[in-house]
Amino acid sequence: MVPPIGQGPLGPPSATGAVGRHPAPPGPCYYDSSVCVGRPGACALRLFIAIPLSDPLHEALDALQADLRAASGPISWVKPGNIHLTLKFLGEVSPTREGAVREAMAEAVAGHNIIVNAINPGPIRTERWDGLMERVGKTLGMTAGEYEATFVKDIPLGRVGRPEEIADLVVFLASERASYLTGTSITADGGMTKSVA
């Protein structure tokens, strides 16, 4: 199994991809994630080829960060689980081109029995999501729960997603059961995105 691609933001728009290989040898895989810089609407997909790091290396980085935190002031740290070895940065493209990029990647590597699919998660219950609800709620004079309740009204399933629901989808896409599925995008947002196929 090849791990999930990148770390998308907690709410829409997001474009977190998954790459699977059958069978899955070690080696480089494509990564992509969407990032919003500066202001709403200023989003870009950052495309790169990277090698995921091993669990022992992530654990060593976590321990190193803990030591450095104790010895330094307030510094923003990247979670060790989000660190990878980038082989080549491919550039940034508009999120409107996500489909074309995904399809081109899928076509380019299909002959090597590699699948390329994207997962577009909506709001997911994480520490980052809870912090966002708290900060925005505080700005609006509301509790985190009160603000989230107003947000959840726009989700047909009436709730925020759970991380394991996205993880299950990633595991499926990286498994043999998805070996004939490539070049597609799956939106997991509780029905927020309306579309007609």
Q: How are the SSEs ordered, and which strands pair?
A:
Elements: E1 16-21, E2 29-36, E3 43-52, H1 55-71, E4 84-93, H2 98-109, E5 114-121, H3 127-139, H4 144-152, H5 163-173, E6 184-188
Parallel strand pairs: 5-6
Antiparallel strand pairs: 1-5, 2-3, 3-4
Helix pairs in contact: 3-4
Please provide a written account of the structure.
This protein folds into 2 domains: 16-123 and 163-188, no CATH class; 125-160, no CATH class. The strands form 2 sheets. The chain has a 3-stranded mixed β-sheet, with helices on both faces. The chain is globular and about 55 Å long. Strand 2 and strand 3 (43-52) form a beta hairpin. The protein has 197 residues and is of the alpha+beta class. The model is unreliable at 1-41 (pLDDT under 50). The two termini are 30 Å apart. The protein has helices at residues 55-71, 98-109, 127-139, 144-152, 163-173, and strands at 16-21, 29-36, 43-52, 84-93, 114-121, 184-188. It has 5 helices and 6 strands. Helix 3 (127-139) packs across helix 4.
Which key terms come to mind for this protein?
3-stranded antiparallel beta sheet; 3-stranded mixed beta sheet; single chain; alpha+beta; 5 helices; 197 residues; 31% helix
Helix content: 25-40%
Q: Quaternary state, please?
A: single chain
How big is the Rg? 18 Å
Termini gap: 30 Å
- Using the alpha-carbon principal axes, give the shape: globular
| DSSP E strands, number | 6
Average pLDDT number: 74
How would you concisely characterize the structure shown here?
The protein is an alpha+beta fold and about 200 residues long.
